[in-house]
Structures
1.
Amino acid sequence: MNWRSIWIVYDKELRDSLRDRRTIVSMIVAPVLLVPLLIFGAGALMLKTVTKARQEIPRVMIVGGENSPKVLSALRAAKNLQVVPATEDFTNAMVEKRVRAVVKLPPDFDTVIARGDKCEVEIYEYRGEMKSGFAAENLNAFFRNLSDATVRERLAARGVPVEVLQPFTIQRQNVVPPSEVAGNLLGRVLPCLIIVLCLTGAMYPATDVTAGEKERGTLEAVLCCPIGRTELVFGKFLMVLTASIGTVVLSLLSMGATFQLAKRIVAGSAPREVLQSIATVDLGELAGVFLMLLPVAVMLSAALLMVGLFSKSFREAQSYCGPLMLVAMVPAFGAALPGVELNASLAMVPLLNVSLVCKEIMAGAWHWNYILLIFGSACLYATAALATTVWMFHREEVLFQS
Amino acid sequence: MIETNQLTKVFRDRKHRKEVRAVNGINLRCEPGRIYGLLGANGAGKTTTLRLLATLLKPSSGTVCVAGCDAIREPEKVRARIGFLSTGTALYGRLTARETVEYFGRLHEIHGDLLQGRIREVFSTLGMSEFQDRRCDKLSSGMKQKVSIARTLIHDPPVMIFDEPTVGLDVMTARTIVQFIRECRQKGKTVIVSTHVMSEAEKLCDQIGIIDRGRLLAEGTLAELRAQFAANDLEDIFVRVVEGQP
């Protein structure tokens, strides 16, 4: 291996890429500006929408409830409900969002309750619609309180203490320190995010230095020079890897800075766990995650180079990159699903294994046997991908497809 | 000097499950200080032959010797001794003219003062000093062609291979290329040019080889071909050769 030749190719490819507007957008502008903007912009928008919906007093309709003045007046007096006159087509009224929820009371509700009998109250909601859900929650809370009060009255009338219905209380205790709770939350998201960033950062440069060069005819000119094809592919690969890791580092720095800024601006109003997670990120854990994800970046960079080499044109390569992204994202996001835990068989599944072990590391659990097994297998997959790329670069039918 | 002996290249056509003999037993000999023209229609095997000479492809059988080096056993030595100019300028648009030539110089293992000296020499010969620091994508087609020539000349190769070098060029740029090919001959380089433009071959080549379906069907100087096929016009000669007329 001639490292001087590799450096010559790497140096040229990096210079060439950094002058390309499309690489700058995919490597610097998008991750540094757009990703935080999207995450926090969308987060702030959602927070604002939810807060506004919560503050709004929902319009509800009462259907039935004849001869029940007590419950009707209590409902009308409730501060978190706005009762509107009932109409027959209450379902349509809900669909058209004129009312958010409807409660259907049986006739003589007050009498039935006073008699000590049982009856049924129906609450109608438009499932999936946030404001309707809040209105139904308010109605539900109202009737739960009424039910509790009725039970207490009935027990008191019979001289039975309330405790007879609650012989003991239950307290759930958390044994994990807050940092690990936060690590769990961040650990689910961070590895997937890094894998996606590895791909997005490497995608454009990888296709440009392979399919793009084929299309422009420059690859043929370079292949006529006395440089080994292995050196040539290594120079290109190292540049793609640089773009991949550079994108990850820039994105995380940008996100970290945005988090800190957001924490200062919206301290108190944003979810506590999210703010806490950044404040408690352990640098050792973060370094561990980076180390585990390094062979993944190598594998993905090599895979993208293979796609580029396989394609006849830049456009063809770009169209293959979309499905590759999906293929990589499914196992990467699999680790974020609740209930998916690290075990011996999942430890061999590429991408999913690294995502899972990173989740554990971020939660402060260093399972060294799994870490070594997964790091070893990830290195093996990365080596295989890189070896295949080098092999493809030696194939005439790959380089001169026509 | 370029010499081939029974040079053959077979491709596997996976779609139709058959073998395609793109180059079929070609024997040719190009001497220093002379221009050899490889004349053939599209798909005749010209580009494949030149790629075999440039070691971009490996022969299926036969031998190739370029500038005293065996192309199969010593491909890197062969590549160090050739300059390859193909259709299109094949430049990196985002690099400047100087950076492009520098890159190819470094790939040919020319470094430091030697490289800077060569760049000065080549740029001065081709009149490129004015636009040496402009990006290639901002250059006119004539300027691009000069950069392309400069990158093939930077290591001063004894053998020059041109694959349809004037295709798609305007008259003035094509003349620059033709002039450059003649200069290579004057400097004693071995030159091989593929073309399907008869007038170009007539004006430029000392030796002409007519290739069709991978086979070298006729070879000689223009005068020898005229005498052999009893025709004055190269186009008539070409048609007779390809159609198998005596």
2.
Amino acid sequence: MNAVFYIAAAVALISTIMVITRLNAIHALLYLIVSLLAVAVIFFTLGAAFAAALEVIIYAGAIMVLFVFVVMLFNLGPSATAQESQWLSLSAWIGPAILALVLVGELAFIITRGAAIAPAAGVVEPKQVGVALYGPYLLGVELAALLLLAAMVGAYHLGREWGDEATGRRGDGATEGKRDGEKEE
Amino acid sequence: MMATVPTEYGLLLAGMLFALGLIGVLVRRNIVFILMSLEIMLNATGLAFVTAGARWAQADGQVMYLFILSMAAAEVAVGLALVLKLKRQFKTLDADAASRMHG
Amino acid sequence: MIRMTIDDLVALSPLLAIAAASVALMMVIAFYRDARAALVCALAGIALAFAMLPVAASKAPRQITQLLILDQYALFYLGLLFITCFAVALLAHGYLGRLGGQLEELYVVLLLATTGGAALVMSAHFVSFFLGLEILSVSLYVLIAYPRRSARGVEAGIKYLILAAASAAFMLFGMALIYAELGTMEFAQMASGMAGGDVRQELLLIGQAMIFVGVGFKLAVAPFHVWAPDVYEGAPAPVTAFIATVSKGAVFALLVRYFANLGDEVVQPFFPALAAIAVASMFVGNLLALEQTNVKRILAYSSIAHMGYLLVAFLAGGSLGATAVAFYLVAYFVTNLIAFGVVTILSGRREADEIEDYRGLFWRRPWLATTFLAALLSLGGIPLTAGFMGKFYVLMAGVESALWLLAVILAVNTMISFYYYLRVAFMMFRDAPEGEAAAIRPLPSLSFMGATALALLTLLMVWIGVYPGPLVQTIRSMVAGLR
């Protein structure tokens, strides 16, 4: 199990370094997703299978998709097509793909070796987590619900189109600079 | 049966990921990248909690991880809504323009 | 398996009421959008939550699951938070009316933020500590960037979000380290765990230090204060009042409870660092405030300095320290609400936050100017105001614990602070420049709600300053029950 942990840790570190050094947002997101998948494998080696599943489903799935969605939203326009082809170039996805393949290899290893390599100590079954969540931590669940409610109401209000707000700061240097930037495209 | 992963290594990895995320927050100037780096930091804290929970064989670590997950989702939702609002106010869809706003 | 009983629910009723009020208000807004109806619903919700306090008090002290605790200490701060939220809602009404647009969601988020603060002052566990703080933070991001045309607000909101999320991550990592060492996240059980032999103290120290980073950011004390002036300036005036009071007060109340549980030995290694933070906050706040020309920025730097004063009381420790913290917080809450209330009442589409906006205010709005003057004097700590009594108790706690140097620095800083408070005060008595009278912006008409709130708060401030006895008695009895 230790070898699986070390390899996954290396994948996580490499892909995280790639995230913070990329210039293109989509490339960075690809690496970030690989990093999250690697952390999911690490969760499994730590005996937290439930957390591993949630890492893939919610973190790599839902939250990252939100990121991709917003980044895509910014790039609508004439330059989008050019960027699309640039994103799909080999160099963009070969790195994340290799790292992801390493993780797939680990997954295959774990599946073929089966229970023999399951972590010995510290395993926390999903059932235990559920019992804790709806037992002693019930109020925590309620508070988390309020947290999400605040985020929902807030995102709704902030993300709403008002139609008249593109005023910015009139005569501001920053605004002027951006208009120039648009013309260049 | 192989040996289990020592708690120290899990915490060390979490610390390294956390540091990388912090570097990202400090160095990057584009808001979308800063939000991504914040996600890395939060994910690292989640890893630290799951590692700690595994040390004590308690469910508490994973419960805290779940709450961190919901916090990360809330932060991202509001953060991206703010970024959208910023873009709309300054009449640009250029994601890199955000870099000029920061700091 | 832990089961909640009826008694638990009764003890929890203030928190339940304020949370239910936010959800109910959201439902009302979904079907009937009206600023006045939304305000009335919000006020009714807060009043209901406040009315639940005596009901809940009959069950105090009571531990509700592992996460929350309801004792006299929590009840006191819950009352303070609810009153503050009530005042902010009243002040926000007129402000929103001048801003225009469909703005009822503000009350929903305001109630949620107060719920987060309420969870904070009741928490006895890392989970509720973290979740309460996050509810507060996420609500504040929204409130800061709330007005739809405010470019400054969006910038301030993003800045606050990035820094708050990063500091929350620090805090969480610190909690994880402590949990990894102790195997418990309950405050009450940590003290015994820390005394154990096989615990690596250095990891615990790092963990506590990282928690301090998160808390220090929320309080905006010296090395973590950079966000405060920009956010204070960019946020709408009523929201600034909320940030200055509820967000800082709830976190400070939690800090006191956390360390009361852990014991003095845990604070001891951090004493030099915390003392340095207190001194730096006082000097940074007061010296940088001297050269500001924006009233909101002046108040931001002044609140950095006030957090430094509070840290002196915190460092003094013991029941006298906790009493001083509570009294100072009450005085600070009331005074700041008045100061930002005046700014709110004068603001409309444009924030009235330049010092020039206050030129000759006394001759145009004598009552408003007098109120503002009283608030400024109280912030400075002139005798017969709430601020003076607050400083008096802090100094007393400091001297009692023989923190001579900190006490002297506090006194020196109080002197410095008079300069910029009086600068704003004198501006109100200046004559408007001749011949430019027509160029002066017309003042918005005084809203009834706002004026009422201000009048009540001013009465409260004078009462606390002149006759602090009853409040001190209440605080003494509530601090006595603090573990």
